[in-house]
Amino acid sequence: MKDRGSPEVYTRVRKDYEARFAALESQARPLLDKARREYARLKAVVTELERKLNAARLAKEEVEFRNALGEYTQSQFAELLAQAEGEVAEVEGHLAEAGALRQRFLEAVLSESELEGGAAPPPPPSHAKAEEAAAPPPSVEATEAMALATPPPEEAGATIALAMPRLLVQTPEGVSQEFQLKAQVTTIGRSPRNDICIAEASVSRQHAEIFLSARGYSIRDLGSNNGVFVNGQKVVEHLLASGDVIELGAPGWKLTFLAPE
């Protein structure tokens, strides 16, 4: 291609292509930043799930051991064992969902290190063919894929701060308090044993929970007396969006779901 025009024209066109490519690369960079943040959040969720799975398995083992010592009647053992096995199965299900989501991330890149701030590949050798240097810039889609596969050099080894969703709880008197949601499950109810306690008679002891699935954070009614409402609509289970207002039957209390920015 170089011999089809004067050196001046070749240089001008090449600089134009380089500038256009740099612009496309700059546009694609936020995609990489977002992918890294979301992947870091997912890894934290997986770590928490693995911890919970280990705890659930130990709890099941303890039930079986205590039964062997003669602590339980047959009916008590059956009930406790079913509960322990249910907890193990539930956490295993959440862990499988998280694993499937992680696999989708990995399919978009060449290696996991690229989602963790790995170094960019070395530049092409200086003796690259003139035809390659003068080739038209790649499409936006190709540039986005390249950005996901090649972290910017200045971000190599960067540490990503993990941002978790929050719940803004407002009392009837207008007093507000923010709670950071847990990586997996946050419980809400009248009992002080909940992660978020609302000491109102109209709120059940274990009223609701906000949990993470492959689609995002959802709220689930745990069989409460007065129900769960999201944006005024009664729900049993609902996928939350940032700004959703939750009510649990306690007059004047409002809980606002705030997704990470």
Automatic annotation (TrEMBL):
Q: Which residues form a coiled coil?
A: 32-66
Q: Which domain of life is it from?
A: Bacteria
Alphabetical list of SUPFAM superfamilies matching this protein: SMAD/FHA domain (SSF49879)
Which segments constitute the FHA domain?
186-235
Q: Does the keyword Coiled coil apply?
A: yes
Q: Where are the bilayer-spanning segments?
A: none
Keyword field:
Coiled coil
In residue numbers, the region (Disordered) covers 112-141
The protein's matches in InterPro entries, at most eight in alphabetical order, are given as: Cell_Proc_Reg/RNA_Proc, FHA_dom, SMAD_FHA_dom_sf
The keyword Ion transport is annotated on this UniProt entry: no
This protein is called FHA domain-containing protein
